[in-house]
Amino acid sequence: MVIATLGVVLSTLLAAVVTTYFDVWTSSRSPVPAGRAIHAESEVWWDLKRDVKAVRVAGPVDVRKLELAYPDGDVALDGLVEGGGIYAGTMRIRLTLMNFTKVPVSITGVRARVTEEKPAPKGALLSCGGPQGSVGITRVQIDLGSAGKAAQEYDGGDLVGQYPAQEMQLAKQDEPAIFDIRVEDGKAAYSYVLDVAYTQGTKKGRLVVDDAGKPFRLAPAEGDVDAAYRCDHTTTRWTKQP
Question: How far out from the chain centre does Cα 102 lie?
Fold first, then answer.
């Protein structure tokens, strides 16, 4: 719980301070198995005050049963994904990178690599959240609809260049670095992983980051659906959209 809370605090700092790319904190995690000098972990999340969290499902949804089964819309959307639905529109991926050696590691690039592409489900689309205040700064973004699908760095709404525009280094042993990537949808339902390229001394390497052993999945929020529903993520009520 302490680590999770600290990650949220660091994410806020990353969104507010445009000159900061990595924040470092001391790890109390279990040691990485022998031979794994560079390690990465991931977490999928949304800021529902700024983001719309959406899920597409293949068939109809009984929203009354959904209201009874889940305490709020946010949890209901996660339940639909566990039942076979797919997140739609956008997601944020928080990466935790750890260097367990004394040799500094430089991050040279981050890219989404599609492992499977399918048509988006045409059943129901359910969504919650959305802008409720000032929009925070998103420094790193990946557009799944782009040809290269490489992470791009932004300063507010201005494109700086391919991420990282400046050298990013994991210099300290056993001190994780945390940063967030906002991933935007493409024209199809994609399964994908993140390739994190790095150099360590004269060695070049690549970390493959997935979602707890399986690919990340994201579908377009736009397109034909049989029905669309919206909710306030603080309530259980779903309203059908015209």
Answer: 29
